[in-house]
Structure formats: C-alpha cells, structure tokens
Amino acid sequence: MSNSASPDALLGPADIRELAAALGVRPTKQRGQNFVIDANTVRRIVRTAEVRPDDVVVEVGPGLGSLTLALLETADRVTAVEIDDVLAAALPATIEARMPQRADRFALVHSDAMLVDELPGPPPTALVANLPYNVAVPVLLHMLATFPSIDRTLVMVQSEVADRLAATPGSKVYGVPSVKANWYAEVKRAGAIGRNVFWPAPNVDSGLVSLVRRTEPVATTASRAEVFAVVDAAFAQRRKTLRAALAGWAGSAAAAEAALVAAGVSPQARGEALTVEQFAKIAENKGAGQ
C-alpha cells in the first residue's frame, strides 16, 4: 500500500480559514504564527527536505496541520510538537478526518519545544518545520542538541534568519547562530518562500535552510558548552578585537591573547572571521601560558 493520500487530503486556503474559524483561532503575533495555506508549498518543503518513506520526522509548531499532512504522505511517521492548547487539541482530529489511513503513524506532543527532551516512538531521523520567527534559532539549536539521531533538518524561517544561519565566516551576517548551527551540521540556504502562501501574510519574506548533520563532529577536546562560551563572548561586542572581546571569558586581555596565540588565531582578529573549528581551538587553549 502506498503512503500517498488523495490530492484533496492537504489543506487549502478555504480549509485553513474554515478550521481556524471553527476553533476560534486567530494567528497571534506573540507566537509568531503564520499558517501555510498552499498545498504546493508544503509538498515542495517535503521534497526539498528529501523526506523518505522510512523517515521518522519531528515537526515543531504544526499549527493547523498543513505541513503535517504533507509529511505524513511520505514519511514513515510524524511526531508534532505544539505549544498552543487549542491547536494541539484539534490536530489529531484533522489528521483522522483527512488522512485516516495514516492516523496511526502520527503522534502529538503538547509542549513547548524548548522543554522537550524526549519523544514517543522511534528516534527521529529528520526535523522539518515552519518555525515561529521569534524562537526559530533557539528551538532549532535545542532540537539538534537534544536529538542526535536527527540527520537532516529543513526549516522555514524569516529570510534574514535563514541568511544568518547559512552565513560563512567573513560575511556581514555571520554570527552566533551561524557558528552554533555549523557545530552540528553543514548548513545552506535551500530556497525562498513568498509571503502569499501564508495566512496572515507576514511583512517579511521567508527562506528554507537545510542542515545535514556532520558525519564527523568538530574534532576538539573542548566540550560544546566550552566552545559555545567562546562564541558567545566573541560576538557579544562585535566591533572589538578578540583580544578585547574574550578578556572577560579568559580572565584578562593578556590571558585572552595567550589563548588566541596558542590556538593560532591573531589577537587582532574579530569573531566574524573565525570558523567553528577555530573557536574550538581557542576553547581548548583557555589558560594557556599560565
């Protein structure tokens, strides 16, 4: 039996508005909610994410279920994490009504994604989500850290956030999200999404970001927390040289300079010029020369 459902199983604009009206749902700015109302867009996301029939997909912020249904057409199973009480309560019924033959492959976790540390069923192999703009980066990093089995990730985020996540050293928008995402994965922009596929239409463009987990983690004796502490310090005052920016982290500017020199990094360099590997080297050399 094929997983594919009838073409009208996916939600169109009228379905979304009808569901929302029945539930008394108004998308809220506070949660950064914008519902996708275009079936072609959700299918494109599933294709771009390269979701396979054996994938266990975790979705964060499923909303009314547009993307959830498209994922269920292709994946082996889908677990959705939804914080909103009304949306979480309604989603299983939507799946049951529109894709009854796949309903047993769906699980709902009613929780804040930032607090989720386990999921029902087999470990997730992929993360595919339309992430609320205001929490996109912390949620993404939390999921990658908490579920090492997630091999491929495709997230839809505000265009500017997509640029930041996928930025490489030397770019103006390269910063904390770029380095931390790169700790886990190879990151790249995977397309743009217009405003008219959302309800309500946001006043910003959206972008897709693909993250494929590194087969070999960053080679370092420093822990992730130690490396991330250097990254946070380096970008806290962007305009400063690393010697100055890392003074607090190292204990003094001289101690920062010693760590940088030992790591083979110029004390006059700035954070936006460094790779994640270089940040790891600096973390390893904290206390050098003491």
UniProtKB/TrEMBL annotation:
Its EC number is 2.1.1.182. Keywords: Cytoplasm, Methyltransferase, RNA-binding, rRNA processing, S-adenosyl-L-methionine, Transferase. Residues 41-215 form the Ribosomal RNA adenine methylase transferase N-terminal domain. The keyword Amino-acid biosynthesis does not apply. It catalyses: adenosine(1518)/adenosine(1519) in 16S rRNA + 4 S-adenosyl-L-methionine = N(6)-dimethyladenosine(1518)/N(6)-dimethyladenosine(1519) in 16S rRNA + 4 S-adenosyl-L-homocysteine + 4 H(+). Pfam families: RrnaAD. CDD domains: AdoMet_MTases (cd02440). One of its GO terms (molecular function) is 16S rRNA (adenine(1518)-N(6)/adenine(1519)-N(6))-dimethyltransferase activity. S-adenosyl-L-methionine binds at residues 34, 36, 61, 82, 112, 130. It is found in: Cytoplasm. Transmembrane segments: none annotated. Belongs to the class I-like SAM-binding methyltransferase superfamily. rRNA adenine N(6)-methyltransferase family. RsmA subfamily. Specifically dimethylates two adjacent adenosines (A1518 and A1519) in the loop of a conserved hairpin near the 3'-end of 16S rRNA in the 30S particle. May play a critical role in biogenesis of 30S subunits. HAMAP family: 16SrRNA_methyltr_A. NCBIfam families: ksgA. This is Ribosomal RNA small subunit methyltransferase A. It comes from Streptomyces cavernicola. The gene is rsmA.
